[in-house]
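Customer ticket, subject: "Can you confirm the structure for Dol-P-Glc:Glc(2)Man(9)GlcNAc(2)-PP-Dol alpha-1,2-glucosyltransferase?"

Message body: Hello, I'm evaluating your service for our small team and ran a test protein. I'd like someone to confirm that this is what the system normally returns, since I don't have a reference to compare against.
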Amino acid sequence: MSELAQAAGLLVNVLPIVTATAVLSMIEFCVMSKTNRGFSVYLVLPTLIFTLGWIWLSFITAYVPEPYLDEIFHIPQAQTYCRGDFFHWDDKITTPPGLYLATIAATKLKLLFAGAACSPLVLRSFNVWATATVALLASTCRRRLERSHSTTAATTSAVATDGVVSGYSMYTGFNVALFPVLFFFSGLYYTDVASTVSVLLAYAHHLDRVSRPTNSMLSDVCVVILGVLALVMRQTNVFWVVVYMGGLEAVHAIKQLSPKSVAPASTTPFTRLSHVLTTYTAGAVHDPPISACWPDDIIFSLLSIGLAAFFHPLRVLRQVWPHVAVLALFASFVAWNGGVVLGDKANHVATIHLAQMLYIWPLFGLFSAPLFLPVLLSGANTILTLPWRLSASEKTTAQHSVVHAFFVRRLYYTPYIAATFVVSALVVRFNTIVHPFTLADNRHYMFYVFRYTIRRSETLRLLLVLPYSLCRWLVWGALSSSSKPLVGGTYKKDPVPFVNHPILPSASDRNPDPKNALSSSSSSSSTSIQKGIVVSDLLSDTAPCASPSASTVALLLLTTSLSLITAPLVEPRYFLIPWVMWRLLVPAWKMDDLSSTPLSPVTKMPVISFLVKFASRYDIRLFLETAWFLVINAATMYIFIAKAYVWKAEDGSILDGGRLQHFMW
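Agent reply: Thanks for trying us out. I re-ran your input and got the following:
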């Protein structure tokens, strides 16, 4: 009871202020007219995140007041900095001192007001602020992604850019901050939340840069500063600020070339291939939205961008030189330090761990299950319509060459799927690595995952390839957010830019849903006459429904691979930033996608029709995702607080001085 009383006392210190802010902002949102809303609209959900984080911190402080697990390294190091000793370093700490420096700065600015200076409570409270900042930055990044989906500058006015914010982007930021692996550490003094903030800061600036044709020198310098800030938080952030964002800026530079369209001399396959390769070198790249993509589209997208970059190196270098500078600074640090990690180098040796790229999919699948509803409906529609679509496809095959039919009917897709299973099985068989830390610490959930699955038997380990593959299909399918069938469709020109397939005439086999096309943002321009902040829904603004491009998805996969396969240790925290960046790319989904499918009669049933009408304005997956995250967070918090135990040796003797141990991510 004393712990509950202490937690209640901590809540009383701050909840009135935070609750008042949230209530006033909500009143403004619900009561005042759109033209009179202020900036506080953006702060409603981040304030709620702060409130929830403070509640969690209060319980942790009451039940676990002393530094726990990795905090036994981080908190003393931060307290050393608090005393002004910036030259003492604990050799067990592997990450740079960015978290400690940021905490000291926040303390000096009087942002951390919970108790004695640099006490565990005060230091932990920094991550409560950081988690609320994640919500705000994630919403900002998502809004800028939606703004970039306009295909012409004329469709997005200055007022629309600055004054219209989609409800989807605001709610997405809220759910990102609620992500269980991130939110759990809002109450502990770990580096993960602050590291996520630093990457999102760099990403928000990057999205602002790619919204204009050219950038100033000041903007370039900001890239370097924000990149260094991300590296000071965690070394592996180099992949996100250099490879991912640098790669996206290179693609942006190439797309600014805008070469004139020239028709091929003839329509023979060889002539068209030669012509398209020539246009690739001029900058006419193939980069359709992922909702219209098949594997060959991604391959040709990378080929076209690579050729364009090779023939226009100065244009690309002008755009990406700040990222090259960040990479050079990081390389200099590695050379000076003698390695990537700062301390405990013997237990953190970089290796090739390809199995990480198998583990990531079920982890995403567990947390993001509500987002897979469109993919599952798409699968159902595919099964229901497959016979007649295949029959129609067979009738058209005779009209085209073998090569053309190979791409039109995607005859390679079945061998491709089989190959992914084979490669996954080979990775499991020859590259499964079990780090000693995974088996030595039963306080982490991953200990039990390995114990009851991966280490159970070789047969079970290989059988896990099936759920790995299924979850991978669901994760990438969520980036399309379409419920239309996967097979068949009319073979005609896509209403999107950057479609330049070398075999097919300017289109992919699947005609993308106009709701998912990148040109569908004209409705947002109709609301641009509003003044103040306008929170739009999916009827007034379809830009949130636009899918990311093939090159963006390819760069996301590449960066995720580089950041994970060099780590021998498997921890959910390592998948945090990959999940955040993936989640920001997931487009909104309107349930009226089902209107022209075999499932359409179901949507006309009384109760379901009401849900469909509601879901035509708001992505119902967001509410399901929130509920799911709250359930997971409540469960893990309860286990952490209520299921504490004491370590005992095999002979029954008490270990670790009898201190209570707690289960955590």
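A couple of notes from the result: Residues 151-161, 487-495, 507-531 have pLDDT under 50 and may be disordered. The first strand starts at residue 164 and ends at 166. Feel free to reply with more questions.
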